[in-house]
Amino acid sequence: MSLAFRHKTHLPDRISLHVCSDCDLAFTWPRETDGYARYYGQVANDFHTGVETFRNVEQLDRLSHVIAVRGLKRVLDFGCGGGGLTSELAARHPDVAFVGHDVNGNFPSGSGNLLFTQALPEGPFDLVILSHVLEHTPDPAGTVRHIQSMLKPDYLYIEVPDPRGYVSRDQPQHLYYVDRLHINHFGLKSLTRVAGDDYGLIEYSEYDMPYEVGPIYPSQFALFVVAPRSVAASLKDYLAEQNRTALGVRTRIEHRRFYVYGFGDNFFRNRAPGGPLAGLEANILGVIDRGIEALRAEIPEGWAAVHPDDMASLNGQLIVCTVTQASGLSDDFAAVCPDSEVIYL
Prior knowledge:
Strand content: 15-25%
Low-confidence stretches: none
Radius of gyration: 32 Å
Structural class: alpha/beta
């Protein structure tokens, strides 16, 4: 479907509607990010009207419950418009700090626990509210990623129109729900994708929002919370951290010769790619292990095989220890090899 409009600065004159069957998202095209930003920057948000006519009590009760039950103390309403929702929440929760952010957000709040600002405030926030914002945003996923990165909210509340309710809650104007300002039409799947893998869905529902025209507007909301990191992501971080640690140890020993205490699994893990002993076979003078007799056949040619009872002969040599949990091991080294430097892997 394609629609043409009269010329309006910064907005497309003609749009087409597209549907992504994979992510359950419908969207209009074209969309020019800077153009939309300039357009909304020139649109007054009508602060007084926004506050005095706020009628969405169901949304207000829902968010008030989230704030109270979860003990939230710092809340941002991103794209707060006239500030009606933010002002009502601030009045209900005087012990909570609220910030309303909008491109035209430099107006007085009238409340000591509420600040309206045009500039993106500093995080972190316990909760960021995106109420009827993302349907207007050329890059909704990018907007949410920016919020998550800069503001680090524990909870993310997203509310947008519900396309599944368009047909049963029709408005007087022809094709009212399809225009060049409502450029995204979300399903639950696309909302979840926009929130990203770092957030998990904990509440979702559709409801009828009070509206000046109609008189109701089909809406949906989703509440997300920071999700535990996945096993894959956690292992990736762990391996990267281990490689950084190994590199630090390696720089201390790569130009020196040394004996290794412990010829068990720890030793072989340390020789794996990225490990502190990887590629340093030529640096190893010998192996110290209590089971050295049974292991002697496995020790590479040229390496000495030493029992801990015979360590006194190694006094003064560098000892790299792969066994860190043995009780009293440091005392043994100090007593038997007092002149040796010991590095623990």
